[in-house]
Amino acid sequence: MTRKKVKLAYINNDTARKATYKKRKTGLIKKVSELSTLCGVDVCAIIYSPFNTQPEVYPSLPGVQCIVEKFKKMPEIEQSKKMMNQEVFLKQKIGKVSEQMKKMKKENRDEEMNRLLYGNLSGKMNLQGLTVTDLNDLSSLIDQNLKDINKRMEKIAKETKIARMTTDAAATPNGKVKANVAAFATTSTTDNNGRGRGMQKRGDSNTRNQANSNNNNKSMKFGGRDEIFPLRNNNNNMNFN
Questions:
Q1: How far apart are CA 205 and CA 195, in angstroms?
Q2: 117: Cβ–Cβ under 8 A, 6 or more apart, which residues?
Q3: Which residue has the higher pLDDT, 208 or 154?
Q4: By percentage, how much of the chain surpasses pLDDT 90?
Q5: Between β-strands 56-58 and 217-222, what pairing exists: parallel, antiparallel or unpaired?
Q6: Residue 214's Cα: distance from chain center in Å?
Q7: What pTM, to 2 d.p., does this model score?
Q8: In which element (H, E) is residue 57 found?
Q9: Residues 92, 83: contact at Cβ < 8 Å?
Q10: Which of 21, 92, 122, 157 has its CA 20 to 30 A from that of 103?
């Protein structure tokens, strides 16, 4: 369970006020002791109350006197530089609360104008009956939204440009490799085509030689039989088997 917030106001009931005093005094002394122990600073507390004839001090009367004398030796300007009383404390508290209220009012006003703007765009609401202040606030909201959109567009365009430049820079070496591979493939194709043409030429030459060799053999017929007589270039005489 969350602790209930205590209302800071004077307690009219004597019994309740005395119980609260004892409880709060014990807590205050504990906090002062912790501050001195944890931070190693000289602290003291002097508490006057209608419930005791003598003031209550911490850590002791000699300790309090030593710290008070040390404080009195300081220049007056330094003494009052960070001094705070009840009036100053309340003024600071009121100032903080006022700033919080202004912030909350501004947030509520922006939320109201946003609802009015989007309701008008969707056709659920209209601008009739608005005051000059409402129209000025709505105009300011539209201008702010347009500025936010332009900033977002500029950011996206910048990021896109950087990404494109990075991609192009990364693809440049690959492009060179691809060009080299293409050149190598073209050279290989040319060489293979050359070899093919050379082999074809040699095949055509062998075919022609074989044809010439066949032409050198003549067929002659004797007595109904076909006899083949090879002709020799070196000797014109024919040999019969």
A1: 15
A2: 138, 141, 142
A3: 154
A4: 34
A5: unpaired
A6: 87
A7: 0.41
A8: strand 56-58
A9: no
A10: 122
